[in-house]
Design goal:
The complex is a heteroheptamer. Chain E is mostly helical and 121 residues long. Chain E has helices at residues 4-25, 29-51, 71-102, 107-120. Chain E is built from 4 helices and no strands. The N and C termini of chain E lie far apart (62 Å). Chain G has a domain at 284-488. The chains are: A mainly alpha (95), B mainly alpha (491), C mainly alpha (312), D mainly alpha (161), E mainly alpha (121), F mainly alpha (116), G mainly alpha (493). The interface between C and E is large, with 94 and 84 residues. Chain B: Its EC number is 1.6.5.3.
Chain lengths: 95, 491, 312, 161, 121, 116, 493
């Protein structure tokens, strides 16, 4: 029960982060949201493992954390590169 | 008994193989004109020998058969020699050496290019003609029919890109009709009878009736575009761009004869006269042929170009054969078969003459021929004999064949046919006689170039065929016997 | 949530944002897989969708630019096609067995044997692994080959550019950034974690493929935080290429050995005296093959993409 | 080579903790191979990019962490207030460059990360001996300016450069 | 008919079609690839949801568990995911080459350039 | 005893959830990117700590606990690095922070000195 | 002992060889190795064909798990025929590749090229031989991925776009197949084809099953370029390297047709396909339009490769038409055409490759006068062309004959007419090339070209001769096709 509540709460957080990612407005906001989304997924998975009665799936949570981290780094590298190439702003202002 | 020490089956193989070997020889000897033409002539004579050697036994009733290979159950490449095919093979084999002699004279005289290719495809065409002659079933016939079509295309377009347009018309009509109409007809036949073999008395029997039968006949007649029944005759005048020996080949020996030959063969061996007799609607063939005869003759009358006039004459003459078939009387059938022979000799003479005139004087129009008979007496003499045969006047062989066709028409009381024959005879006379008259009796136009006879080879060839035209009138036994045996029961 | 993400992806024209959202989409899907008990799949989807795919897409965007033009033609026709296809599917699902009900044919046929007997027959607790590597080991070999084929494609298309030192005079290294210090410490653990996943696929979620991706991710992190040159120094493309082919051969070789020992292709039971042991060794070997191939292919593909980007 | 030694040891521990199979010979052997392989790779990296790591840091780090957790809890509550009661606790972002006393890259990293880890402050950039900090309010910066965290991290680093 | 039990599938179908639409309606090549991925991922969800057993748990032997979800779809989808990433990698590599050869990755611009090429031949 | 542990972990989990949601809301309440980073960091730090502690209490003293701690350490290790890198990139590429007026000039000055 | 393993060797020999080939690096070594492998594979396929020629079925259980739990390989006459044609074509194309590839592909990519070729080859064999529905998908992707690679190696930049287009279409197709398989699986719980065949009749009325059917048909339709899903094909074949065009045109679509047949008649059964789904009413119009439309489009192409590609679309129409005829003759015709079309398209594309080797391109104008300069090459082209047209004594005739018989058996005259009209159209497009090559002079200033080297001519002529041989000696093909058609229509083997 308590895991379910926690899981739902984390899902709410994820949803909020997702909305932030949709909204932007700047690229960095999106990245921030994505990063946050990722870390919350890690927690979510961890809680889910307990919820399902199989807490030995934490490996997956670890992978998520890892992938999330590398993903964010990659995105940042990308942004840096683009910004280097053109001084124009990278903001996704078209939305 | 054959006078060659080989079996008949071997003869069939040889008759097919010889042209191919000859073709190979021509390609190999391509660099040396004399050798090359020697090969051509040798092959031609050997072929003549082989084919003629078969005559006695065929006359004696032998029907040698040869299955080359079986593609699928019921579908094979099969040869069978029967009198009609023998007749056609003889014509082709006999005229080929003569045509070769003539070609040598013509091609050298006109300094044509790419002669190796020319001779090569020539033998391939003869190969096709032989295959058609000996075809034992529709599939084989179709195959060689296409070989003939394709191999004559390079000959028609020999003059190069300027002749390409006409070449396309030629090929287009022939291929379209053969695949679009003939092939379905064959398949249909196979579908209803389970075979495509040529059998005396026909194979259709009761399998098809009434309108369907007429439809099948329609498919066959127009599918065999080479028979040039209007309106699929357009290829023939188009092919006139070819060098004259080719025109001779097309019009006298191989192509058109293959066409009408196939029509005769299909009607006798696939349908059978008796099957067709009395079927409502079959008369359309008579009308179509008659129409073609008359209209083609009228058109011929209006042509000033000599070769075109001859071409339209051919269309008309071919439809005589079809007419003979359409009368559906055994005797006219014999006439039709004979007319294949008669027209072959007559028309080849005429074309040879036209070519000779062109070679000697570069004249191509009828209106230019005034007085030419005095410069080229042999040529124009032969021309006159050929023309007589076309009109159907003794002592030319054309008379005999027309006579039989007419007799058949009388027997079956087909007045339209009779009228057609009479009218066309008059028209034939109307477009040939003035030429002869002008050639011999009109004064030459002033300022004409001085010239003599065509090269010897050409003159020799046309004299030979002219002589044959007369000889066949005098001694028609062999072709007549063969024609009688095609199994329609002539008394 | 998934739907929302998908719609936004369609709508957004900044490709960069699209790619990021795609990575979220992947993570979401992976979470969903978790909920649906497909732990191994979730593992893979996270590593692949959110990890490798995203990185490759970013690598592409670096080269191609990141802004999409306004679509020129009307979307009506595609819409019709899509709606039609969807309609067929919805129509088709009307007769589908209901979600989750245990009496579906899916759960009645074939699968029970995997669930009930595989621990005895194959001898490892993770049924997914036993099905993957043993019952349907041939599929997995095919999967390895697919990865290999992708490598061939990428190599032949964009190749790995030889790294040329653009500034040969620069010998003095700039002070290491926070990121670099942090990453350096992290990388060994990532790599070891990958190997852990590799060898514990029998017991928990994971296996050769996931391990390969994680291992490659470790190297990729190194390349990202330091430079491609450093990464290539650590794992030289030439060596890695050999390893990629070796992985495939290891998988196939295991099969062939079992053939030579009298079984059929990939029948591991004959590998040892005891079928269970044989299965165990066989699975270990083929998983290793998968891991080697996947890791090296992922690295090489990454090298190819990034070196292409840096070349121009 | 304290670094490599440290890595090898912690890798081994890491493996054993992850694996949980301490009695399975095969897995232990594989673990040994794995650690060796990763150790080799780490060594390769280390040759390219050496790390200055002292045992002192390792020993003192846990103490620092405990302290840091306390700081984090405090900082969290602060930010929480700003989220829920933005009227009373307004968000007044501020950015300021602060000095840092660490010498080595590792020390600087630890300091900067510690700043970031405490909500309310985030290290934006490290240039030379100064760190640019963004804070959600002036109090955060003030807290840092007191310099306790800086001192503690420097203490971790010890005298070695 | 109790359609609630099928609701799950319909969501999947919606996602699938969203991806599919992106693939065929969008001119940007990268976007096409993204769409393709979404399309495939949704199919994966379809498979996985087939394998779910209510009350079941992940198919790894555990003392606590009584029912397991079906492992077979998992295996299939593992393979399919790998196939998907392989395709993606290849597609992206192609895009890079296309960009280099044409200077754009918009489908209509490429088509226009191709037509020009053909006109010249 | 068990009850106590349960209640404790309940509390921890609930507190963690509350913190997380707060952080997420902060993501919307805070005016600019830089301040949102702080909100996000709330969820990454204390929220994660609380939730994982809650789980640890449930798991007891097993390997699972160890793994949970590893996950937490990992998160704590990566999250500041990522945040820092993110902020640095944003700052470096000219995303202006929204600052209180008094601070504005100071920062400009700072930038001039740091970039030179 | 080895005999038992033949089915699996058929696939894994080229599959694993690909990995070895990858290691061989540059130079001629990969080529030599790949060629050797293709011959070995061909030999294996012949041995398999001999084993099943009596109508028996071979089964091979991979991993030692009996189906439906494990994956099995099943070989009957149907796939033996396809195996022989695929490996036969490969055995001819690989020797050919050496010179052609030297000319068309950068040297550093040769190793990769042969690796991709082997992968593609192995994938196609695998699709053909496998008895597991999902395994089809995996192997399909192996061959597809390597195909995309191979196409993109073409010289023209349009090779890239066409490869990409193919990638998108192909992946959609594969995903459709995946959906279809998934739906079937949902209903039956099994993936083994034989097992499916047993279980499907029990749930015939299910709508899900019908939806699955639709997805599988469309999916394979995309892969085999069923009209109107053919759009990827012409460009892909036109811009791929010559060797690749030849290999793909001769094998890839054939295997897709085979797979479709397998699903239509083995997995689903005849009753379902024809009666419940009425598939013939879909196939026949589409096939007829494909035959006519594609043939007409082919006539207006300037690039001969593309012309042949459109011709392929038309020829695929013939095969589908055969399926749509709902009788054994129709299926026999489809199978025969499958085999024969591989021979003729192979010969044509190889001849074209030789032309491309000498003159560097394949646009029709550039081929003027080649009849003289490259007599053997062009003669092979003509033989292939005759076969496409369906002239008696060529292989093309045999299959068309059966197809026409099939239409006649049903009394469907208009279809007979359509087939004949299409043959006429084929005459036109083949003739265009013949006319230009034989009856045009070489344009002024065009470089003199020589006959293609022997290593190109020989394989080309092997296929050209095969066209004639199988047009004359039809025992092998017809008996296999008939046996296979009978077993397809007779339900599960």
């Amino acid at each position: 029960m308590m895991f379910a509540v926690t899981a739902v709460a984390i899902m709410v957080i994820m949803a909020l982060a997702l909305i932030r990612a949709f909204m932007g407005p700047s690229v960095y906001d999106r990245i921030l949201a994505v990063n946050m989304f990722g870390t919350k997924t890690v927690l979510f998975i961890a809680v889910l493992g307990f919820f399902a009665g199989r807490p030995d799936f934490l490996d997956i949570a670890m992978v998520y954390a890892l992938i999330n981290f590398i993903g964010v780094i990659a995105v940042l590298k990308f942004v840096e590169r683009i910004a280097e190439e053109e001084s124009a702003d990278v903001d996704g202002k078209e939305n | 008994m054959s006078f060659l020490p080989i079996t008949l089956e071997m003869s069939i193989v040889l008759a097919l193989l010889l042209p191919l070997l000859g073709g190979l020889g021509i390609l190999l000897a391509g660099r040396y004109p004399n050798l090359r033409e020697g090969v051509t002539l040798t092959t031609a004579l050997l072929l003549l020998l082989v084919v003629f050697s078969m005559i006695p036994e065929i006359l004696a009733g032998e029907r040698p058969e040869l299955v080359l290979l079986e593609m699928m159950p019921g579908l094979s490449i099969r040869f069978e020699v029967e009198p009609l095919g023998m007749l056609f093979a003889c014509v082709a084999a006999f005229l080929w050496p003569i045509n070769s002699i003539y070609s040598i004279g013509y091609m050298r005289g006109n300094k044509e290019k790419k002669q190796t290719r020319f001779y090569f495809f020539f033998v391939v065409a003869i190969f096709g003609a032989m295959g058609i002659a000996f075809a034992g079933n529709l599939v084989t016939l179709f195959l060689f029919y296409e070989v003939l079509t394709l191999s004559t295309f390079p000959l028609v377009t020999h003059k190069g890109s300027s002749s390409m347009q006409s070449g396309r018309v030629y090929l287009g009509i022939l291929i379209t009709t053969s695949i679009g109409l003939l092939l379905p007809a064959i398949i249909w036949t196979w579908h209803v009878t389970g075979t495509t073999a040529f059998v005396p008395g026909g194979i259709i029997g009761d399998n098809l009736q009434g309108p369907l039968l007429v439809l099948l006949l329609f498919l066959f007649v127009y599918g065999i575009g080479k028979a040039a029944v209007m309106p699929v005759h357009r290829w023939l005048p188009a092919a006139m761009v070819a060098p004259t020996p080719v025109s001779a080949l097309l019009h006298a020996v191989a192509v058109v004869k293959a066409g009408v030959f196939s029509v005769v063969k299909v009607v006798t061996y696939i349908f059978g006269l008796e099957t067709l007799q009395g079927v409502a609607g079959v008369e359309w063939l008579l009308y179509a042929a008659g129409f073609t005869v008359v209209v083609a003759s009228f058109i011929a009358l209006q042509q000033d170009n000599l070769k075109r006039r001859l071409a339209y004459s051919t269309i008309g003459q071919l439809s005589y054969v079809v007419l003979g078939v359409a009368i559906l009387a055994p005797i006219s059938m014999v006439g039709a078969a004979l007319h294949i022979v008669a027209h072959a000799f007559g028309k080849i003479t005429l074309f040879f003459a036209a070519g000779a005139i062109y070679t000697a004087s570069k004249k191509t129009e009828v209106s230019q021929l005034d007085g030419i008979g005095r410069r080229m007496p042999w040529t124009m003499g032969a021309f006159a004999i050929g023309a007589l045969s076309m009109i159907g006047v003794p002592p030319a062989v054309g008379f005999i064949s027309k006579w039989y066709i007419l007799m058949g028409a009388f027997q079956t009381e087909q007045w339209i046919a009779i009228a057609v024959i009479i009218i066309s005879t008059l028209l034939n006379a109307a477009y040939f006689v003035p030429i002869i008259f002008a050639a011999f009796f009109k004064p030459e136009a002033p300022g004409t170039k001085d010239h003599g006879e065509a090269p010897f080879a050409a003159v020799l060839a046309l004299s030979l065929t002219a002589a044959m035209t007369v000889l066949l009138f005098l001694f028609p036994e062999v072709p007549f016997e063969l024609a009688k045996q095609i199994g329609v029961g002539v008394p | 949530m998934l739907g929302l993400t998908a719609m936004t992806i369609i709508r957004l024209r900044s490709l960069f944002a699209v790619v990021m959202l795609f990575s979220i989409y992947s993570l979401l899907t992976a979470s969903l897989f978790m909920v649906l008990d497909a732990v191994d799949v979730a593992f893979t989807e996270a590593a692949v969708g959110a990890g490798i795919s995203t990185m490759l897409m970013l690598g592409t965007l670096m080269i191609t630019g990141y802004r999409e033009k306004r679509p020129a033609h009307s979307p009506i026709l595609p819409l019709i096609v899509v709606v039609l296809t969807g309609a067929v599917l919805v129509w088709g699902t009307l007769d589908m067995p209901h979600f989750g009900s245990p009496d579906q044919p899916v759960h009645q046929h074939v699968a029970p044997r995997y669930i009930d007997d595989s621990p005895k027959e194959v001898g490892i607790p993770n049924m997914v692994t036993s099905v993957l590597a043993s019952y349907r080991g041939y599929d997995t070999m095919g999967e390895t080959i697919v990865v290999f084929a992708a490598l061939i494609g990428v190599l032949s298309l964009i190749g790995i550019k030889k790294y040329t030192n653009k500034e040969p005079g620069r010998t003095e290294k700039p002070p290491e950034s926070i990121l670099q210090v942090a990453a350096k410490l992290l990388i060994p653990f990532i790599l070891l974690f990958a190997l852990y996943v590799q060898f514990h696929g029998d017991f928990g979620p994971g296996g050769g493929f996931q391990a390969g991706v994680i291992f490659a991710a470790g190297i990729i992190l190194y390349a990202l935080t330091f430079s491609l040159k450093d990464a290539m120094h650590l794992a030289p493309p030439k060596v890695v290429k050999v390893i990629a082919a070796f992985g495939v051969l290891l998988y196939g070789g295991t099969g062939i050995v079992s053939m030579l020992k009298g079984g059929t292709f990939l029948n591991y039971s004959v590998l040892a005296h005891d079928p269970i042991h044989g299965q165990h060794y066989g699975i270990l070997l083929v998983e290793l093959g998968v891991g080697l191939t996947v890791a090296s292919v992922m690295m090489l593909i990454f090298y190819a993409f990034v070196s292409r980007g840096e070349a121009d | 080579m304290p670094y490599i030694t440290f890595i090898i040891i912690s890798l081994t521990v890491f493996w054993l903790l992850l694996s949980g199979f301490w009695d399975n010979g095969l897995l232990l052997a594989l673990g040994a191979v794995s650690v060796a392989l990763v150790g080799y790779l780490t060594w390769q990296i280390e040759r390219q990019h050496p790390t200055m790591l002292s045992t002192r840091i390792l020993l003192l780090l846990p103490v620092f962490l405990v302290w840091l957790i306390g700081e984090i809890i405090k900082a969290n509550i602060d930010v929480l207030k700003r989220i829920w009661f933005s009227g009373r606790y307004p968000v007044e972002p501020i950015m300021k460059s602060l000095p840092m006393s660490q010498k080595g890259a590792l020390g600087k990293t630890i300091y900067a990360n510690a700043i970031t880890l405490t909500p309310g402050t985030v290290s934006v950039d490290v240039v030379g001996d100064r760190v640019l900090v963004h804070a959600v309010s002036a109090e955060g910066i003030a807290g840092l300016e007191e310099g306790e965290m800086d001192r503690r991290v420097t203490a971790l680093e010890g005298k070695t450069t | 008919m109790d359609t609630l039990g099928l609701f799950n599938y319909w969501v999947v179908i919606f996602l699938m079609m969203a991806g599919f639409y992106t693939v065929i309606a969008r001119g940007n090549l990268v976007k096409k690839i993204v769409g393709l991925n979404i399309f495939q991922t949704s199919v994966f969800i379809l498979y996985i949801s087939l394998g779910k057993v209510s009350g079941g748990t992940a198919p790894i032997v555990s003392d606590a568990a009584t029912a397991y979800s079906n492992p077979l779809p998992h295996v299939l989808i593992l393979t399919a995911i790998v196939v998907g990433v392989a395709t993606t990698a290849l597609g992206l590599a192609l895009i890079i080459r296309i960009k280099e050869a044409y200077g754009t990755i918009e489908e209509d611009e490429i088509l226009a350039m191709d037509q020009k090429d053909e006109g010249r031949e | 005893m068990e009850q106590v542990v349960d209640i404790l972990s309940w509390l921890l989990l609930l507190a963690g959830s509350f913190l997380g949601i707060s952080g997420a809301i902060g993501l919307f309440r805070f005016p600019d990117f830089y301040s949102r980073v702080h909100a996000a960091s709330v969820t990454d730090t204390l929220c994660a700590l609380l939730i994982i502690s809650g789980l640890v209490l449930q798991a007891g003293f097993t390997l699972i606990t160890v793994k949970l701690i590893i996950v937490l350490l990992f998160l704590w290790y990566t999250s500041p690095v990522a945040s820092h890198a993110l902020v640095k990139a944003a700052h470096y590429h000219g995303l202006k922070p929204l600052l209180s007026d008094s601070n504005e000039d100071e920062v400009k000055e700072e930038e001039v000195s740091s970039k030179s | 002992m080895m005999e038992m393993h033949l089915p699996v060797l058929q696939v894994i020999v080229p599959l694993l060889s690909a990995a070895i080939c990858f290691l061989l690096g540059r130079g001629k070594l990969p080529w030599m190795f790949a060629t050797l492998v293709s011959w070995v594979t061909f030999a294996i396929s012949i041995l398999i064909a001999i084993q099943v020629s009596d109508g028996s079925t071979l089964q091979y259980e991979l991993g030692g798990w009996e189906p439906p739990w494990g994956i099995s390989y099943n070989v009957d006459q149907l796939n033996a025929l396809v195996l022989v044609i695929v490996s036969g074509i490969a055995a001819v194309v690989f020797p050919y590749a050496l010179r052609s590839v030297e000319r068309e592909i950068a040297p550093e990519q040769h190793g990769l090229f042969y690796t991709a070729m082997l992968l593609c080859f192995a994938g196609l064999l695998g699709i053909t031989i496998t008895g597991d529905a999902f395994n089809v998908f995996v192997l399909l992707e192996i061959s597809s991925l390597s195909t995309y690679t191979l196409i993109s190696l073409g010289k023209d930049r349009r090779a890239l776009t066409s490869s990409f287009q193919y990638l998108i279409m192909g992946t959609i197709g594969a995903t459709f197949i995946l959906i279809g398989i998934g739906l079937i699986y949902a209903l039956t719980g099994t993936l083994n084809m034989a097992d499916l065949a047993e279980r499907i009749p029990q749930i015939e009325s299910s709508r899900t099953l019908q939806a699955a059917f639709a997805f599988i048909v469309v999916g394979f339709g995309l892969k085999l370029a069923m009209f109107p899903l053919h759009l990827w094909l012409p460009n892909a074949y036109a811009f791929a390297p010559s060797v690749v065009s030849a290999f793909l045109a001769a094998t890839a679509t054939k295997v897709a047709v085979y797979a479709l047949l397998r699903f239509l008649f083995d997995v689903y059964d005849v009753n379902f396909t024809y009666e419940a789904m009425q598939v013939q009413y879909l196939l026949i119009p589409l096939a007829t339009v494909a035959i006519l439309f594609a043939s007409i489009v082919a006539i207006f192409q300037n690039d001969v490769k593309r012309m042949l590609a459109y011709s392929s679309v038309a020829q695929i129409g013939y095969m589908l038409l055969g399926i749509g005829l709902v009788n054994a003759t129709g299926i026999t015709a489809t199978l025969l055409h499958l085999f024969n079309h591989a021979l003729m398209k192979g010969a044509l594309f190889l001849a074209l490759g030789a032309v491309c080797y000498r003159i560097g391109r394949t646009s029709i104008q550039q081929m003027a006068g080649l009849g003289q300069q490259m007599p053997w090459t062009m003669a092979a082209f003509v033989v292939g062309g005759l076969s496409i047209i369906g002239v008696p004594l060529t292989a093309g005739f045999v299959s068309k004959w059966y197809l026409i018989l099939g239409t006649l058996e049903n009394g469907w005259w208009p279809l007979t007419a359509a087939i004949l009209i299409a043959s006429l159209l084929a005459v036109i497009y083949i003739w265009r090339v013949v006319e230009v090559a034989y009856f045009r002079e070489r344009p002024e200033g065009a470089p003199d070209v020589k006959e293609a080297p022997l290593s190109l001519l020989l394989p080309t002529w092997v296929l050209a001769a095969a066209n004639i041989y199988f047009g004359v000696q039809t025992d092998f093909t017809v008996s296999f096709a008939k046996g296979a058609a009978a077993s397809l229509l007779g339900g599960a083997p």
